[in-house]
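Quick bug: Ig-like domain-containing protein output formatted oddly.
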Amino acid sequence: MEHLLFLLLFITKLPGGDSMQTQSRVSAQKGGSVTIACRYDQKYKGNVKYWCRGLGWHTCIVLLSTDSPQGRADLSITDDPAQQVVTVTMRNLQLWNSNKYWCAVKIKGIGTPDDKAGVYLSVTKEPPPQPGTPPGNPQPGTPPGTTPQSGTPPSDLFTGKASTASPSTPKGGVSMQTQSRVSAQKGGSVTIACRYDQKYKDNVKYWCRGLGWHTCIVLLSTDSPQGRADLSITDDPAQQVVTVTMRNLQLWNSNKYWCAVKIKGIGTPDDKAGVYLSVTKAELSTLFTLASMAPPSALPNTARSTARAAPPATTSSLLWWQSLLIACGVMLLVTTVAMVTWKTCRQRRNSYIRCEMDQFDSELMLHTEHDNDRIQLFLRSSSQHEHPF
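Here's what came back:
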């Protein structure tokens, strides 16, 4: 197994930059290794650094941190405070390791976001392109799945637009089509419908996962639709629609997925359409159902959501508002409990004072009666002494 060490290290620091810095994109070969270096500001030398995975920062899952760097044979992290560099090494790479990763530094303080830098890792079956060699084939009509050029914005990587017709597709032919983005809640389910051209009615359709088409891993196909409780695929040739349902969604299910149709013939690329699935913790449930299908020209409106699909930025704002509401609720609860406790204590104190006053009045009346009796006895005794006869 070939061992590939791809060391990316920033020797110089950008002027005025105080955030975490690293490469925006890294390519590596399946079975190999990759080492990624992230430079941080001097003020973070004593902070904990960590490595997490997730297309969106709000769904990032921590894999390893410098305060507990051991425990995984395929992943390691080291911090060099003298060089202000944290280094992450991933070994025995597989195609499903293709994802976005984040170097991050833990910032102490409530409400202070951690500093971070994202890097997209692409694991391929072929050796990665040499530095300076533009990846992919710029010629139109070539099979998609080429690695995007370095510096391509993430928004351009996950547009999910339907692929263009292959050279063998007649003019005016309709390729596989679906939604470009779907949001769903953790623990929920989502159903995605993909429309295909009539000429593909008898072809095998399949569902695969991967940020890039060339790294897409087939999860299920219509020629073997059974076998997984959390995933199902059905084909309706009459409606020219293939439907995929994913259940019990987890945060790590966030990825790009592809509806595809297998095209027979050597050198003929499969037809496909990509959709980006974002699974969030927010109380925002997005369930795409297969409704009455519109004509191919109106396909972008064929999948309807019971809740509005929100991009990661909207979800982040929603999480912020939820945190604020929870904090306000806790403060209101504490204030209410304090007021009830104070009122109860005050009532008990007043009752105690009234009880003491009543007891005092009773004792005072008793002493007064005794004093009156003594006075009367004294007066009688005095009168007897003054008039003995």
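Actually, after a second look the formatting is fine. The longest strand covers residues 115-124. Closing.
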